[in-house]
Design brief:
Elements lengths: L1 H25 L2 H26 L4
Length: 58
Amino acid sequence: MAADEKAQATGEQAKGKIKKAAGDAVGNESLQAEGRTEETKGDARKAKEAIKDVFKPK
């Protein structure tokens, strides 16, 4: 399950970066904000998984 969550986080980060870049290219502030939001969600999900890995029994 953790690998699936990590992949989803990476996907959200990439999707956010693409939206943000597209918004920059066309000057659409709404699309830029949407991209930043999605990228931040991916960052948060990735951080959550990293924390779970720290506390995972070895």
